[in-house]
Each structure stands twice: as structure tokens, then as C-alpha cells.
Amino acid sequence: MHGVKTMTEQLKQFLAEKQETQQIKSGRKETTNATTAEQLKKLLLAKQLALEEYRLKPDCFYSLKEIQLLTGGKSRSTIYRWEKNGTIPASHKIGPNSIGWLKSEMDEWFSKFQGAA
User: Fold this and answer.
1) Does this model's pTM top 0.90?
2) Half-sphere exposure of residue 59: CA atoms within 13 angstroms, side-chain side
3) CA-CA distance, 28 to 107, in Å (whole number)?
4) How far apart, in whole angstroms, are the C-alpha atoms of residue 9 and residue 115?
5) Which of 10, 13, 96, 114 to pair with 43, CA 20 to 30 A apart?
6) pLDDT tens per residue, range 6-22
7) How far apart are CA 5 and CA 57, in angstroms?
8) Measured between alpha carbons, how far is 28 from 5 in angstroms, rounded to an integer?
């Protein structure tokens, strides 16, 4: 499927753009003020649209790396321990050598996780 970005790709792009935005704000990257403001507006709008579009997809899976990113960099062993203990929803086998977590289940868990923090 050409043109469709995985959540991992979207997160990597988001983090790269966020780092660029921080560099622009801190003055480490040389740009004019008008260009900077316009770039920031475009970045924010594009990111909001991409995230909203992804939220609307009902049958997606998060990979282990995506779960790690979304939980603030928790280790694989922590994620698997949480799964075994029932702290997070169970993963699903999605291929011969791959597992994933249903987006809808994890989004529900994330909202509770963030509410408790």
C-alpha cells in the first residue's frame, strides 16, 4: 500500500519535526521570523491532521515499538510483564513472527493510564 504511513513512521516523522521545531524556537536553526512562524503553523496543522486521521482508523494495530514510544520508552520486558499481569490489554498474533495490540483497546487503556497519572 503506497502512500500509507505506519504509526511508527508517523511517530518518527512527528519526533523529527518536533526536534526541528525546537531548534527553530531556540534559535539553533537560522530562519527568518516570518518563515519560522509559517513553518510552525504548517507543521502543527499537518501533525494535527495526521493524528486525527490515524485516530479515526478503527482496525489498526500498534507494534511493540509503538507501544514503547507511547508509554514513554518503557522496555520490552516491562511491556510483556504488564501484559502478563493484565495491566495492559493482551496482544494479538498478526503474522507468523509478529504481534500487535488492537488500537481501540490500547487507546482506551491509554486514556485510563493518563487519567491515573
Assistant:
1) no
2) 1
3) 36
4) 27
5) 114
6) 667 777 777 777 777 77
7) 12
8) 29
User: For the chain, which residues make up each domain, given as ranges?
Assistant: 7-55, 61-116
Report CA torsion sign: 104, 110, 73, 6. Answer: positive
User: Would you say the C-alpha torsion 10, 13, 18, 24 has a positive or negative sign?
Assistant: negative
Q: What is the CA radius of gyration of the chain?
A: 17
Locate cell 527553530: which residue? 24
C-alpha cell at 7: 504509526
Residue where the block lists cell 508517523: 10
| Beta sheet of 92-95, edge-to-edge order | 61-62, 98-102, 92-95
Give the pLDDT band of residue 1 (cuts 50, 70, 90): very low
pLDDT digits (tens, 9 = 90+) for 4-61: 566 677 777 777 777 777 776 666 655 556 667 788 888 888 777 766 666 656 668 8
The cell for 59 is 482496525
